[in-house]
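[Structure tokenization] protein backbone as discrete codes
[Encoding] learned vocabulary of local backbone shapes
[Protein] chain in single-letter code, fold in tokens
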Amino acid sequence: MSVTVVDSSAILRLCFAEGDLSLAEQAMQGVAAVSELAAVELPSAIHARCHRGELTEVQAARLVALAQSFLGTTARIAVSRTVLREAASVAQQQIVCARDAIHLGTAVVTARQQRRRGATTRFCTADGRQLAVARALFGDDRVGFVPPYR
């Protein structure tokens, strides 16, 4: 069995239907997990587009509901002390922003738990900055990258 930890950026691509979504769709159709951070990040990113005038409030509300439905199909991983410790370790070794470190720390903790069960873990992101760090942590074959939309 394999679990895919999905970054908020990949879920946002699904919500906005931007670009080649095959990897993100594949991740969400399997056993998917996401950091609890996504519960704040997803609506925040959607509302930011609304505030910039790119979406109406009705469109934003519809997209927030869609994001919530995607989150409802995933295992939600708490931002625990263990996750924060791993996130800090990632940030110590690589140049990465705090929220990306938390998503990656979530994936590291999930991978450790899955290894104990004889399962593997993948990571799916649409964030190019996060990609190199994820590949360094998990290897090229365990990281799915949703290519840039623009």
